[in-house]
Amino acid sequence: MRIGVFICHCGSNIAGTVDCAKVADAAKAFPDVVHAEDTMYACSEPGQQGIIDAIHEKNLTGVVVASCTPRMHEPTFRRAVERAGLNKYMFEMANIREHVSWIGKDKELNTNKAIDLVMMAAEKLRHNAPLMAKKFDINKRVLIIGGGVAGIQAALDCAEGGLEVVLVEKTTSIGGKMAKLDKTFPTVDCSCCILGPKMVDVAQHPNITLYAHAEVEEVNGYIGNFEIRIKQKTTYVDWEKCTGCGLCMEKCPSKKSYDHFNNGVGTTTAINIPFPQAIPKKAKIDAEYCRMFTKGKCGVCAKVCPTGAISFEMTDTEVTENVGAIVAATGYDLFDHAKYPEYGAGKYPDVITSIQYERLMSASGPTSGHIKRPSDGKEPKNVVFIQCVGSRDKSVNRPYCSGFCCMYTAKQAILTKDHIPDSRSFVFYMDIRSPGKDYDEFVRRSIEQYDTQYIRGRVSLIYPQGDKMIVRGADTLAGAQVEVEADLVVLAVGAESAAGAPQLAEKLRISYDSYGFYMESHPKLKPVETNTAGVFLAGACQGPKDIPSSVGQGSAAAAKVLSLFSKDQLESDPQIALVNASRCIGCYKCVETCPFGAVKEEQDRFNNPKARVIETICQGCGVCTVTCPQSAIQLQHFTDNQILAEVKALCPSMMVKN
Amino acid sequence: MKGLEELKDKIHEILPDLDLVIGWEQGYDGLHATPLFIKTPEDVDRLIIGPLCVHNLATYLPGLKDKKVGVIVKGCDSRAVIELLQEKLINKDNVVILGLTCDGVINLTKLGRKIGSLGAVDDVKVEGEKLNVVIGDQQHNIAFSEVKQDKCENCIYPNALVFDHFIGEPVDRVENVGAEHQSLSDFEGKSFDQRFAFWKHEMSRCIRCHACRNACPMCVCRDHCVAMTRNPHWLSQENNVAENWMFQMIHVMHLTGRCVECGECERACPMDIPLMLLRRQMNRGVREVFDYEAGIDAQNRPPLLTFKVEEDNISEREW
């Protein structure tokens, strides 16, 4: 083999703490290395041309580039090597930036480590073999998980692009958090009025299949060919028959059921349609409150239902859908303020969350849009808003900024004045964060035109006094303690990852951060991709986002799916397991351990038992290769010999020879 | 071990339906037993059982997969049969298991240390707790407990756990339940340097004869053993500490969650390397992490031969 080694400076990123020329010099002494040089930017146009020229001039048969992470530029260099006429798997990358120059300051040690890593890559390359990709067909259907505004946008854009869309929503109606909001900033237009038409479009679009009150149970397969098991949770109402007339809600005697849609502001009936604009507009029985389930008798809804849709015997069912791509748009949940004892830990009825306040202000809410405080139904005159409840607070493990609370608090203060002209609003804040188009102007309007009093400081205690709540806090600009007498306190609770987000991530095999938000493939350049091919992100499941960003990301994810599906076939990754049949003893341990069911039991022509890998199912995880005791099954491009070569390069025998 | 006549009767009864029955016979001298492959009724007369019957006959089963085989097993041997059944390496329909109860078997190395030479033993008799060794006109009376195999010291499975026919009366060893072998704590009492030096010394003695592998009932790769192949090239032919150690570690790792501690590796080792120490240590790890013991229940899945996203005792996530 004739190996060429290229050591990238990455400007000063690597060269700042690694002697690249010395690494190149050392590489010249490695076995089979016939060319080694350092280069300013290996990934640049002249950098790549340098590699290609060297391949031609020196008759190279393999290339090592020592530069950044392969996540960044492995595809770039593989393409360059391919352009020069080599197989793209005759290339190895040593990461001397993230693994060396960025993490150590000692130039000598760094240089030595870089030499070690380059030696490992060169030793592995000596055992590389050309690999060929195969092609397979794509199933041009897309699964979108979550029917909030991001999921709705992604679904509509994909459907408009001619794709068949399967939309799975956990609750009984799409709409998500946006459907609960009264108005939206910075235009103060009615949230449900702008979202409603999109929801109707979803219901009416011929390309969209909606599973509401359903959850993704299992995800199998790979990009282009996923198989999804969806659990259709029981509603005890046959949705084929339900017309959404609402008669059952009128007659249901269990009227004290927790109202999920209104976040516990007011109550609802055990059988209910969450809100008038719900899509699909179908009823569901909440078994926790239904008298038929709790007491064993009632059945009023079944008697009054004009279509006979009620079925108390109904159980969960399962559906399987085959798709080629997945968009996760599972949104967020709100911080539980019970974790703050100083705010009453959820004990005071007149200390409510911002989303509850939205429902109080909403015309479709339990108070028909009249702001009445929960304790006695009185109209509050002094409303105190507290920001950063569960945001920017390490003590509750929420050090991040939720991003949208400053804006919705400004909006809620404006709307309070609109609803109750003689009211006063106070906002306790840490910093005002309003970096969006027309956002800062909006906050100024709240302060200047609507006379909202902003107090920069944290609240240390809320306590009741008579029928008022006393809010005690610091005014750090005045350098004084302040106490505000409030009729109602609204906590601007921050965003956290949706309940069950990590579990779904495991099913999708995508990464998530320590807070449960899904990891994008690259924080700047691949914001809607994940590290699992064919799985994309939209909306707040990736991190807290306001409506415009969520909608933008929904469209971006749809664009990614559409461009993926613009091809009819994809190239399969040849880095998969293969069985050397002459070494296989047919113990089938690999069959037992393969997480994907990719290994099959077969017989050779002498009826000896042999294992065989189904190439299109294998994901190249390597579990089978560590299971096989005689190493008959080998992961291509990561064979035992390749890994042993790397280990031996790194660790010359530590044992004293005897 | 009791019930030789009962056992012989049973073999006569089942032999017509089988290709062969594997047992033990007296070897070339009074001290050694050797495996016996019974194919005719006459062969049955040569059968012996007792403390000399050290061999785990289950080792032969995977190689006789296509034959109908009867096999005589002690408690420890039966665990190997179960493990082979668990891994579907043998077919239960083709195996008839004759289960014994066992009071322990002899460790020739220990006996050798007691009586000097093992070269000319004429006869060995068990008399209660005593072992009577006859060498010419000399007689050695030795406490049996002092020359038992290590595995017999804290044995909790004296009776065959799986059998088609049980010979004799089952005995109890509940007093040993939960006891770990003394060698583990002895070894752990040493410093890191002492332990490293210990294994370096032991591994320098390994001659890579592969007797440990050939005697192991769980080493089923036979001609395809990774220790012999050049592709993948895990081991060179060079005999040095590093390569010997690598070989022994590969053997231990391949036995993870599969080793039934029958002790055949250590017994077969001509260099008396304490190989069971490695296996006991590894089995302790398997017990702690997977709450699992190999070769107890044919329906169980060995923990490393299955795939679970979430292991019960390994908390990788917060939920």
Please identify, by name, the CATH architecture of the largest domain in chain A.
3-Layer(bba) Sandwich
The tally of domains of chain B stands at 3
Overall body shape of chain A: globular
N-to-C CA distance of chain A: 33 Å
CATH homologous superfamily assignment of the largest domain in chain A:
FAD/NAD(P)-binding domain
Number of helices of chain B: 10
CA gyration radius of chain B, whole angstroms:
20 Å
Instruction: Give, in spatial order, the strands making up the sheet with the most strands of chain A.
Output: 10-7-6-18-29
The amount of helix of chain A comes to: 25-40%
For the record, the CATH class of the largest domain in chain A is Alpha Beta
Work out the number of β strands of chain B: 9
Helix count from the secondary structure assignment of chain A: 19
Mean pLDDT across residues of chain A: 94
Low-confidence stretches of chain A: none
Greatest interface? A-B, 30 and 30 residues
* Basic shape of chain B: globular
Secondary structural class of chain B: alpha/beta
Q: Name the structural class of chain A.
A: alpha/beta
